[in-house]
Amino acid sequence: MQKVLNKYSLKYEVKSELAQLRLEHKAQPLKQGDDKYLYKESLLQTAKSKIRTLVRPNMRLVPATLAVFIQCAALLTVAAIVWAVNFAAAAYLGMNLNITIFTLVLMQALLAATFSYLAGMASWWRWIHLCFPLAAWMMLQWHIPSAVYLVGFMISLSLFWTTFRTQVPFFPSRPVVWHQVASLIPQDSPVRLIDIGSGLGDMSMYMAKTRPDSQIEGIEIAPLPWLISFIRAKFRRSSARFTLGNYQALDFANYDVIFAYLSPAAMRMLWNKASKEMRPGSLLISLEFEIPNVPESIRILGNKNTPDIYVWKIV
Ligand SMILES: C[S@@+](CC[C@H](N)C(=O)[O-])C[C@H]1O[C@@H](n2cnc3c(N)ncnc32)[C@H](O)[C@@H]1O
User: Counting atoms of ligand 1 from 1, which one is nearest the CA of 219?
Assistant: First the structure.
C-alpha cells in the first residue's frame, strides 16, 4: 500500500513540478536566444530524473530484470504503433501497409534503447538493448538447429549462473597481480586466505604454491568455473580448497585475508559484511574496485596493463 502511495505521490510530484516550471517560465519575460532552449532542457531533465525515480528505487529491480521489462515494453509499443498505423492506413487511404520484419526489429531495437536511457540504465545497456533484437533476428535467418541454442544456454548458465543478480561476471585476474597480492600478505606467520569468487581457481592455486604454510581457499557461486577449479586443484595436487557457494554465507571472522575481484556493483554490500565480521588486523584486498567513501589503507597503483589494488586493514 505504502509502495502504491509512493508511486502516485511521485507521479503527482512530477506533474506539479513540471507545472511549476511552466508557470515560473510564463511569469518571467522571455529573453532572446538560449533562454527557450534552457527552459526546454530543464523540463526534460526534470521529467527524466523523475521517471528514473519512478522506475528504479521503488521497484528495486536488478538491471537484468529491468532489461527484460524494457524489451517487453518495446515489443508492446511496436505492436501498438503498427496496429494504429495499419488501422489509419486502411481507414483513410484504403490500403494495407506491408511492414517488413526487419523494420519491426529495428523499431524494437531503437525503442528498447530509448527506454533504457529514460530508465537511467548504465550506458552499455543501451547498446545491449539496441543489438539484442537485431542479433536475434540475424540468428533466425541462419536457421540454426534449436539444440545449439540449448547447449549455448546451458554453457552460459553454468559459467555465469546468477550474474544477473550478483552483477559480478567471470573474468580472470592476471599472474602479475597475484604476485603483488602475495607481497601484501603478512609473511611472518601462516594466514587463512580466501578468494571470494574464485573463478577457475588460478589465483588461489598460485597463493597455495607460494605460501605452503598457509590455508588457502576459494569460493565460487557458478558451477562450471567451480568444477574446473576443483578438478584442476586435484590434478595439480594443489593444497587450495574450492567450495561451491555464495560468499555471503561465509563468516569473514574466520579469515585473516579476504581477496575479492568482483565488480563496482558488489563493493558496498561487501564492505557492509566485511566491516561487521572481519577481525581487527585482518586484510580485505580488492583488485580494481574501490569501496565508495571508504578510504583504503594501502593502494598499489596499476598501469595500463594492471588495475589498482586496494587494501583495507580492519581496525
Ligand atoms: C571477476 S571473477 C574473479 C575470478 C578470480 N577471483 C580471479 O581472480 O581470477 C568474479 C567471480 O566471482 C563469482 N561470484 C560473484 N558473486 C559471487 C558470490 N556471491 N559468491 C561467490 N562467487 C561469486 C563470479 O561467478 C565470478 O566467477
Answer: 21
| β-strand partners of 311 | 285, 298
Residues with CB under 6 A from ligand 1: 166, 168, 170-173, 195-199, 202-203, 219-222, 225, 246-248, 261-262
Atom 4, ligand 1: residue with shortest CA distance: 199
Three cell numbers written together for 176? 602479475
Max intra-chain CA distance, the chain: 87
Instruction: Return the ligand 1 atom nearest residue 266 CA.
Output: 16
Pairing type for strands 215-220 and 192-196 reads parallel
Strands (E), the chain: 192-196, 215-220, 241-244, 257-260, 283-287, 298-300, 309-313
Tell how far the Cα of 308 is from the centroid of ligand 1, in angstroms: 18
Question: Which pLDDT tens digit goes with each residue over 224-250?
Answer: 899 999 999 999 999 999 999 999 999
Question: Do the Cβ atoms of 287 and 181 come closer than 8 Å?
Answer: yes
Q: Write the residue with the smallest CA distance to atom 23 of ligand 1.
A: 197
Average pLDDT, integer, range 176-199: 95
3-class DSSP string for 188-241: CCCCEEEEECCCCCHHHHHHHHHCCCCEEEEEECCHHHHHHHHHHHHHCCCCCE
Averaged pLDDT for residues 118-130: 90
**Is residue 273 helix, strand or coil?**
helix
| Mutation choice for ligand 1 from 156, 160, 165, 170, CB with most ligand atoms inside 8 A | 170
Instruction: Say how far apart CA 235 and CA 245 lie, in whole Å.
Output: 22
